[in-house]
Amino acid sequence: MRCNHKVRTHCVKSMTQKITGYIGTYTEAAFTGRAEGIYSFTLNRETGVVEDFRLAAQTVNPSYLAVAPNGQYLYAVNEVDEFVGKSGGGVTAFAIAGNGELRLINQVSSEGKSPCHIVLNDTGTWAIVSNYANGTVAVLPVEANGEANGKANGEATGMAAGSLGAAAQIITLHGSGPNRERQERSHAHSFLFDKHYTHGFVCDLGSDRIMAYSFNSSATAPLNPAAAPWYAAKGGAGPRHGVFHPSLDIAYFINELDSTADVLRYGDGSFTVLQTVSTLPEAALSGVSAFNTGAAIKISADGNYVYASNRGHDRITVFRTRSDGTLEYVGSVPSGGKIPRDFALDPSGNFLLATHQESGNLTVFRIDRGTGLVTQIGDYPAPSPVCVIFR
Asked: How many CB atoms lie within 10 A of CB 357?
């Protein structure tokens, strides 16, 4: 039986109110992994209900994910120290099918051990991979429309669109910090582009530095040290992840080791500090929780609120942004599980989804757009989840 016009209209609305998300996981026992690879799900952007949770692709330790700007490809780091029989980790490229399932395109070396982060530039022509264990950053070309970056006259390579090429550039960081257990050497934890994609920054947890580079997407080696080659965080802080304010020249970086966040004024590839705030509520600072490490930091699309997750204390902390970009503490709520490694804000700005590495669950929070505070409305099993992103 065919649907009448009204029913067809309703069907279209039902499809468009859902968005596809992906969860990166740990699969290996050495990481207490219990997953099989990358999982997909749909989020109802009206109700916050998570549905259609399924295995989208099998791959080893896909701990961090990135979706291409055109939404057609997904890239995963393989966070291991040996990949397909060779020393170092890997990076895997997938094509995204219409139903959200993933089709393997190819795999390449990450040119370092324990890759833990990947990000693409605004045109999706380069993937930047951070290798934690030995402090290297690899710049990988991405095949666009069957033509490789840097090929004269559009010379065809025979590689599929969206596939990864071997690293065009490898940067090795050098440094250490006062925390002898965690900062014995440089540890590249993440890479962040500025809003104009003219500069990029590496969070070096090991040296307490945010390394700065100019970025030229048309060059064969896109990254070069910036005029101010780094910003120095407080000794023992351990920079981990960062975000830029959508309209102000301000960046926010979460420090893993001392559970703080730096508010930095940005200009032409360099930072100056405006404020450092604790990501923990006062109760934790007084000794309620002995162990805590900062994890993820995100900002709302309107720039009004900054969110941070704390592992050990297992809470999500909310800050309001003032007119100058500095932060004002609003509140802190339980994250709904153990070790909230990552979280994501859905594009509508109505929901926050948090992944819990140790307890193996995904929690959904509704965001109060007036206060920025979040209220848990859902909880779903998810094996060894590490990161969560939306397509």
From this structure: 25
